Amino acid sequence: MENIQTLNFIKHSPVPMASLDKDLRILANSGSFNRNYGITSGQTEGKSIEDLIPDIPGKLVDALKKSLAEERSEVNDGERFIREDGSSHWLKWNINPWSDADGDVGGVVLVLESLTSAQREIELLRMSQQVANVGGWEVDLINNRIHWSKITKDIHEVPEDFEPDLETGINFYKEGKDREKIIKLVNRGIEKGKSWDVELRIITAKGNEKWVRAKGQPELIKGKCVRIYGTFQDIDAQKRATEEHAIISERLEIATKAAQVGIWDYDIVNNKLVWDDNMYRLYG
Prior knowledge:
This protein is α+β, with helices and mostly antiparallel strands and 284 residues long. It is built from ten helices and twelve strands. Strands 2-1-5-4-3 form a five-stranded antiparallel beta sheet. The chain has a five-stranded antiparallel beta sheet with strand order 7-6-10-9-8, sandwiched between helices.
């Protein structure tokens, strides 16, 4: 059996940790272990982990048994599991065998972390990015590498295996003032650490013109820019709708002037009358 000092360490550990014997019965566990899995404090010792956590994944039980049988560590960096009721939870574990006074394996120490809340936030963020059509990008200036997220590649209409470089990425911007603008912003970001948030046009790999919103943030270490990262959003539909509205408004203004039509608005609540310029011209 593990020594008292080790068991006390486990009981007071801030991480969800438990010591199990060869039959997967709990010898000691931390308070955070109880809280994470809804276990009543003081009701765990001597009970099987499978009894205490009914929805424990079979893969975890197999990992515990494998660690005991092969006398080696078992690690899972995070995986999604489906409960019987259809709900899902994410778990991460680290299993290490412990030895008794004779040097024989007497059980395992299990660190079992729930990643469900964190993964839910990540999934919600990913969903919101998809709905808003926002992608991400990163330029590693130390290793001269560029990463585009899937959404960024979709906006550029390139295949998923497309590997961009800085020059290629810049050349997607429409030749002329749009490309000149992004070159100036990128250079200023690298040289002076200035971020940017700009709306420009690109020409996609399929030859389509799109309005995009590009945001960039340089990362400096000891005054030297080592990385630039940011977001990339397709705003083409909104931009074109705004432009169309502006054109319609301009045409309406021209038409009302030509027809000598005045426009007025009366605010009943505030008892206020507002005239446009034509009304003043018509009535002096």
